[in-house]
Amino acid sequence: MITSLTLAAITLSTALGLAPREPAHDDASAVPVPTVQTRRVALIVGANDGGPGRVKLRYAGSDAKALSRVLAEVGGIERRDAFVLIDPNPTQFLDGFRWAQDRVQKARASGERVQFLFYYSGHADDRGVHLGTSQIDYPKLRALIHGVDAQVRLGLLDSCSSGAFVRIKGGKMRPPLSTGDANIQGHAFLTSSSAEEAAQESDRIGGSYFTHYLVSGLRGAADVNRDRRVTLHEAYRFAFDETLAGTETTLGRAQHPVYDIQLVGTGDLVMTDLRETTATLDIHPTIGGRVYVRDSDGRLAAELYKGVGAGAVSLALEPGRYSVVIDDGTTMWRGTVDVRPGVQNELTRSALSQVGTQMTTMRGSEVPIDPSQYRKIPVQFGFVYPLTTNKIERERKVINRFSLNLILGRAAMIDGAEVSTGGNWVDENVRGVQLSAGANYVGGNVYGFQSTAGVNVVGGSMRGVQGAAGVNVVGGDASGVQAAAGVNVIRGHMRGIQAAAGVNWARSIAGAQIAPISVTRDVRGAQVGVIGVAAGKVSGAQIGVINYADEADAQVGVINVTRKGGIYADIWTSDIAAINLAVKFRAKYTYSFLAVGLHPAGEGRGFMSGVGFGGHIPIKKRFYLDIDIGTYWTQPKFRFSGNPSLLNSLRVMFGWQSNRRFAVWGGPTLNMDIDFEGGRQRMGYGWVVYRAPIDPQEVRVWPGFVLGVSL
């Protein structure tokens, strides 16, 4: 008879034999190279809009794009195998999973092993994730992920209370364990917070804490054993530690990522391979401290803590120029490096220069200065630099309270006012007023008012008002008003109003951008002009003759195009014309259209053409309400040589959306026709409920109907 002690020994021995094990050595051999071709498919979702009562997020969409970029660069995911959805509705969300399943099935049919990765960044609670006014509960979301028939399924959720997603299966906060690679099967779910915690995003890092550190880790910051491959173990451990450290002192309190891993196999699952990238930045072992890497646009590309002597850290980056700041706890160091493909790009200590503590001031106090570096000369007069009174100081930098220059003056800083009939040149910052008839140049920041008849150039950021009859340029961010008769350029983000008689360009706008031609990436507010272009999302309205955006809440114009809204064809019949065709340009809540109509026979035969604008109101799931008004020139009886009639038609239409490319709709209309000749029968079937002769014209009003499809 088997004793209980013997049975326990057998059970323990079996458990130890089946349990996943850590790699035996911290070298490249610990991570086996897959012998079977593995294909990765990714569905990546960013949802800023969590519905009524929830603050709209700023960075869920950019988080999704950041993860998509790093997976495409070093994660082995081809761009054709990654589907990125920004603020999708439930239909688009489910279509994304159908797309993923189709890609996976085709790959498996060709004999490939497949790993499926799902990522969501946005609002959630303890029941599910939010897509605007809709919610996808966690059991359904898990079923959707498991419904994708891949050997390995990875789920990454960066949202509040996302830990409830893994709690269903007993997941809990604990150190991560190693998982398998090419021979494994199962799932791994990682979430940014526990079931009771809020997931937080930060303006400093330009994204959420968890995704920011996850992306930094995947770029190489998490590569603990320096084998130039980042495993699931390493990526999660790095994201856990950095997220916890980064949120311990925030108002949202400490954030603890959790996971649920149910995988069988050996070895570690490699998430990114730095050997596959053509451009890397190697940070020398002698450099230590918190490392911040920013691209040429000022975006934080990577952040990590590196110990002195801990070995070189390799980061996979897009080719370009990067600014690196090192905080070693006592001193700040800064350097610039060009990351080029195909060569070794190394940042060494000799490439860093010490940075003095940034000068700050309490409101109402004077600007503090270091007497060894700066000298205050309250009043400065100059003819043309260097023939200025500032040149009495030959060693230190000069700060002026008031500066008057005939042709050109120069100072390190202005803390007051500077006036010139020619030009002003300030190496660092301006606090106050800077006026010139020719040009103003500031190498640092401007806080106040800057105006010229020519050109204003600010190398750093601008807060206040910048006005020019010619050109305004700001190298960093701006808040306030930027106005020019010619061109405005802001390389960073604008909060306020940017107005020009010519062209506006900014990285993003939070406020209003007004010009004949306005170009930006994202808009939160309004873009007004003749031509408006937004490469990203418009959270607000574009108003112009021609508007283009990747995605827009509302567009008011003649030709409105959004990549995500798309261009559709509407075909319908009505009491006015038996056959109608329109090209419809759709935004999220608005649309415009160009239409033609034909009534081929009878007394009401004729042709019409016109334009229209309307609003789109989603009701529930596939149902919606459209309200629009169109204005048409009509040619009764096809008499193109005679005076046309002017027709205005108000339509109220209820629709049913079968899929993204097909909808059926119809409803009542109210029509008013002005016959400029009078006495003619209107186009269509002829009934009229009200007539008002206004010699020689005639006004006619009647109710009608419309029934059509969208393709």
Task: Write out key terms for the chains shown.
711 residues, 7 helices, eleven-stranded parallel barrel, Caspase family protein, flat, single chain, eight-stranded antiparallel beta barrel, Pept_C14_caspase, mainly beta, disordered N terminus
Strand order of the largest sheet: 23-24-26-28-30-32-33-31-29-27-25
Question: Multimeric state of these chains?
Answer: single chain
- Per DSSP E runs of 2 or more residues, the count of β-strands stands at 47
Q: Look at the structure and give the mean pLDDT.
A: 84
Stretches where pLDDT is under 50 for at least 5 consecutive residues are 1-36, 168-180, 357-367
* Major sheet characteristics: 11 strands, parallel, barrel
- First CA to last CA: what distance? 75 Å
How many whole angstroms does the radius of gyration measure?
Answer: 32 Å
